Amino acid sequence: MYEAVKKVFPSISFNTVYKTVQAFEEAGIIQRFNIGANVYRYDANVDPHPHFICLSCGRVDDMDEYREDLGEFISKAVTSSPYTIQSVNLHFFGFCPQCGKTKKNTDEILRLIDALETADEYKVATPANWRPGDEVIVPPPVTQEMAEERLEEGLNWKDWYFCKKKL
C-alpha cells in the first residue's frame, strides 16, 4: 500500500500511510482481515460479506452474491447466541480460476513424477492415475519357471501374465 501511495506522493512516510490506514479502520471506513500468516488485506466494503482468498497468488475477491444469506445467518447468530458478537469474517480459501488451472497441472506433473520414479526403482509399471499406495503392475514372466514362482509371491492375479502387487 505504501508503495502505491508513494508513487502519487513521493515525500510521504511509511508511518503516515499506516497511521492513516489505522485511523480509517478505527473509524469504520475500511475493514482489515488476515488472509493467513499475518498478511492483512483491507476492504472499503465494511458490510459483512464473504471473501474468496486464493492460496496460491493471494488474490482476494468479494463474494457479494451471498450477502443476503450471510445477513440472515448473522441475524440468527446475534439473536440466538449468548455471546456478544463484535464482528464477522467469512473467508473461503482455495484456488482462483487462473491458479486452479496451474494447480491441477502441477498436481498431475507431480503424480507422474512419482509414478515414473516408482516404476524405475521397483522395475514395475504403474496403471493410469496411479498414486503412491496403489497397486503396481508386475512385469509378465518370461519363462514357465518364473510363472510358477509367482504363485508363492502373494500377488493379486488377474491372469498368469498380468499381476498386481502393493509395494
How do the strands and helices of this protein lay out in sequence?
Elements: H1 2-8, H2 14-27, E1 31-34, E2 40-43, E3 51-54, E4 60-62, H3 67-80, E5 91-94, H4 97-122, E6 136-138, H5 144-150, E7 156-159, E8 162-165
Parallel strand pairs: 3-5
Antiparallel strand pairs: 1-2, 3-4, 6-8, 7-8
Descriptive account of the structure:
The structure is a single chain. By secondary structure, the protein is an alpha+beta fold. Helix content is 41%, strand content 18%. The two termini are 52 Å apart.
Uncertain runs are none
Beta-strand content: 15-25%
Instruction: Please write the string of helix (H) and strand (E) elements.
Output: HHEEEEHEHEHEE
Judged by helices, strands and strand pairing, the structural class is alpha+beta
Shape: elongated
Query: How many helical stretches?
Result: 5
Spatially, the strands of the biggest sheet line up as: 4-3-5
How would you state the average pLDDT, rounded? 86
Sheet with most strands: 3 strands, mixed
Helix-residue proportion: 40-55%
**Distance N terminus to C terminus?**
52 Å
Instruction: Compute the CA-based radius of gyration.
Output: 28 Å
Q: Tell me the number of strands.
A: 8
